[in-house]
Amino acid sequence: MSDNRERNGVRVGIAAYLIWGLLTIYWKQLSAFDALELIGWRMLTAAVVMVVITTFRGTWPAINVAFHSKAIIGRLVVAALLLTANWGSYVWAVVNDRVIETALGYFIAPLATMAIGVFVLGERPNNAQRIAFGCASIAVVILTVGAGQPPWISLVLAATWSCYALSKRNIPLGAIDSLTGETLVLFFPALGLVIALSSRSGSAVDIASSTEWAFLLGTGLITAVPLMLFASAAQSIPFTLLGPLNLLVPVINFGLGWAIYDEPMPFNRLIGFAFVWMALIVVMTDRVRESHRRNRVATPPVTAQ
Question: d(Cα 291, Cα 237) in Å, to the nearest integer?
């Protein structure tokens, strides 16, 4: 039963990450519209979808308790702002033909999370993590020199996603209920944003076709579905396996940006990516070895009776 649960968890996790990776194609269908307007619609429709899901799951009591605590509301607001910054940066990059930069951001994100562990939570880095930090730093320098400026979109994506993950540690709600709370916090600002931008020439209300409206109104669903799949996977497979699966997202984005959307890949950018990949390989190898070591220690040797 345990093996079957893990295999099913892997399938569900892969499905979540494939959907997240392929969302780039989804957002490309809406590239005719302003990124700020798109993020407003995404926040608005996501809130509606999460309300439906929460009603179906019957978990409103937990959310009601959270909304009666000023401290928890404050944490939800912080998480919501970080999530908005991450969503907004990603959507802006996709509709402005900078998909490869999103790939770099999500390749860097696990390293940024480790950096938060070291510099914010006071965790002690091991040798593998020090090497990874060094490789990531070299990558940023190479990309900065090659482009004439730091890879801001990539760094913002990595920083906001990692800080968002940190903010979730202090919210006493499950992943799905927490997202409901965050989207409810964003609902009225998103509604105001959509109303304000809808009056402009070229807005979705002004020029969107029926197909584009279907994509626009579906942004809440494509936000909620992979999250629920991820939450299910996280409950059934070890994080040492879930972590490497996460790399499917930037791998897909990298392939889409380079092979499908014909974004430039100069040699200096390829070298920068190579250093990031090297950092990830070092970290993942170290985590796998540490997991095996702990398993050996936890499992006593069998002796003859």
Answer: 13
